Amino acid sequence: MAQAEDTVQPLLQQFQQLFFISKIAGILPQDLEKFRSRNLLEKSRNGMIYMLCTLILYVVLYNILIYSFGEEDRTLKASQSTLTFVIGLFLTYIGLIMMASDQLAALRNQGRVGGLYERIRLVDERLYKEGCLMDNSTIGRRIRIMLIMTVIFELSILVATYVKLVDYSQWMSVLWIVSAIPTFINTLDKIWFAVSLYALKERFEAINANLEELVDTHEKHKLWLRGDQEVPPPLDSSQPPQYDSNLEYLYKELGGLDIGSIGKSSVSGSGINKVAPVAHSMNSFGEAIDAASRKPPPPPLASNMVHESELGNAAKVEEKLNNLCQVHDEICEIGKALNELWSYPILSLMAYGFLIFTAQLYFLYCATQYQSIPSLFRSAKNPFITVIVLSYTSGKCVYLIYLSWKTSQASKRTGISLHKCGVVADDNLLYEIVNHLSLKLLNHSVDFSACGFFTLDMETLYGVSGGITSYLIILIQFNLAAQQAKEAIQTFNSLNDTAGLVGAATDMDNISSTMHDFVSTTMTPVG
Fold first, then answer.
1. Is CB count within 10 Å lower at the N or C end of the chain?
2. Distance (Å, whole) CA 326 – CA 310
3. pLDDT of residue 264
4. Does 520 reside within a domain?
5. List of long-range contacts for 265-273, beta carbons under 8 Å, 24+ apart
6. What is the rounded distance in angstroms from the CA atom of residue 271 to the CA atom of residue 293?
7. What is the model's pLDDT at position 341?
8. Hey, CA dihedral for 155, 159, 162, 165, is it positive or negative?
9. Which domain holds residue 15?
10. Which residues contact 430 (CB under 8 A, 6 or more apart)?
11. In this predicted structure, what is the pLDDT of residue 82?
């Protein structure tokens, strides 16, 4: 056990950079000193207070940002349809709600996250005993790549929007930096989930690779057994070679030899017309072959190669298969616990991604029609910035869905690899072991979901894509109807104004005619 602990690296050792950045940003409440010294995630009262203070600070700054840039929003309801105003008002706070759900979930789960990574470490030790050494260096590289991509996307969106669409001549424009805080915090939180999920997928694949190695080794073993029966025995130099009587003419052509004399000389042991040296020292062209240039005979196969296949001994391999299935069950339980810890943040992210993706495209359409849009969605005025925003938002959602689906597939593929062991061994006892363990694996599969509302797989991704398209078309149709209704009202009002002016002019003409008649009648003398 001590040797396994020294050889297996803790997974949290690769989270050093991510932990420090998350701690400064106020995402994790765990104790900093214990993580730095022992790579443990433990509760911290000071960390909890700091996290609550950062949450309150972010909420206050975000509301100041909305108030400072809300001049356009105050005129939006009067200039545009009520639908656009309501959508903008709701989606203005959806990012803040997503950030708050991430931080509150971290506070609720601060005592359980450390135990989760401790269970992963114990799984690594058990895998090491079965010959699977996990290389966690790929986890560290993946974390660094994700952090770099997060910084690039956040800075690209923030700087491009600030330079092109914000009036930076006013000092209040500095508050625009606050608009990037919710998405940045959400991305850091999801990096923890994504990397932990990737680590579980690697451990499923390590079990599958171990089973596949058993199958490959046994197949090579069976090929060797068949080859041992088919390969002719090696030539013995003390015994004369055997000749085929059907090739008598060939011996005569090559050396002028008589097959009968060869047989007699072989029996008598005389060296006259002995063909064996010619066969070993002459090539097919009759040229001599030097002893130094001869190829050495292939090394004989090891006599213990028969015992190198573990599947050949069902009683011995039963313990190994049982251990692998128990480790598989433990990884599945860890996956379920991981999904439970991040269930609410994942649900908020998927809702945010669906709404923001639809709204960003809808506001892009409004901008092309020279309509006013909410102030915090002014990035939709520029198609290039819109592409970056959509790529960043959809990339997080799609990657988590894809990784969850691949991890679930890797857990289910273990049963297939296990059945391959039974098929290639072709042993009744091993068949019974495989069937028994397959029933266990059938209940060990893990599926990831968002609070049970939907499963994170490719089918869900397809449904979300169709939903975004449908709702976008509906919003555009409502917008067209609202604009047509507004134009109709404006046309009606203008016609009423015109009709009122015409009526007023007609009344003035009637009054003028009446006055003229009255004056004419009054001033005319009576004859």
1. C
2. 19
3. 45
4. no
5. 266/240
6. 25
7. 93
8. negative
9. 11-226+309-456
10. 311, 314, 317, 318, 421, 422
11. 63
Tokens of 128: 């090491």
Asked whether 196 and 404 are in contact (CB, 8 A), the reply is no
* Rounded CA separation 415/325 (Å): 9
pLDDT at 284: 44
């105003």: which residue's tokens? 85
Phi then psi dihedrals of residue 278, to 5 deg: -65, -40
Domain count, the chain: 1
**Cβ-based neighbours of 159, under 8 Å, separated by 6 or more:** none
- In degrees and rounded to multiples of 5, residue 284 shows phi and psi of -70, -10
Beta bridge partners of 311: none
Nearest-angstrom CA–CA distance, 491 and 499 = 12
Closest alpha carbon to 194 in 151, 139, 136, 125: 139
HSE-CB of 490 using CA atoms within 13 angstroms: 7
What would the DSSP string read from start to end of 127-193?
Answer: HHHTT----THHHHHHHHHHHHHHHHHHHHHHHHHHHHHS-TTSGGGGGGGGGGHHHHHHHHHHHHH
For residue 233, being part of any structural domain is answered with no
Distance of CA 284 to the CA centre of its chain: 62
Q: What's residue 39's pLDDT? A: 83
Across the strands, what pairs with 449?
455
DSSP assigned state of 453 = S
Q: In this structure, what is the dihedral angle of CA atoms 97, 103, 107, 113, given to the nearest 10 degrees?
A: 120
Backbone torsions φ then ψ of 454, nearest 5 degrees: -155, 155
Tell me which residue of 388, 381, 220 sits closest to 308, measured CA to CA: 220
Could you say which DSSP state residue 457 is in? S
> Which helix H or strand E contains 443, and what residues bound it?
none
Burial code of 87-113, b = ≥16 C-beta within 10 A, e = fewer?
A: bbeebbebbbebbbbbbebbeebbeeb
| Cβ contacts of 55-58, under 8 Å, gap ≥ 24 | 55/26, 55/100, 55/103, 55/104, 58/26, 58/96, 58/99, 58/178, 58/181, 58/182, 58/185
Model pTM? 0.75
Helix (H) or strand (E) holding 512: helix 458-523
Two structure tokens written together for 295:
């190829």
